[in-house]
């Protein structure tokens, strides 16, 4: 699995995945600061500062 071998400081670590007939679950490391959805909603479609992207 390609994601399992990916290591980068800006990408959460992929731990595993599972599914049943109706639901897929992806397990990653904990990333403090809230969800990606919350972050993007607060930004209101503004560009993410370069320092924050690295």
Automatic annotation (TrEMBL):
Q: Which domain of life is it from?
A: Eukaryota
According to the entry, every stretch annotated as the Serine-threonine/tyrosine-protein kinase catalytic domain falls at 2-47
Keyword Transferase in record:
yes
Q: Does the keyword Nuclease apply?
A: no
GO molecular function ontology, one term from the record: protein kinase activity
One family from Pfam that matches here is: PK_Tyr_Ser-Thr
User: Per its UniProt record, what InterPro entries does this chain match?
Assistant: Kinase-like_dom_sf, Ser-Thr/Tyr_kinase_cat_dom
Q: Which UniProt keywords apply?
A: Kinase, Transferase
This protein's name: Serine/threonine-protein kinase ht1
Upper lineage is: Eukaryota, Viridiplantae, Streptophyta, Embryophyta, Tracheophyta
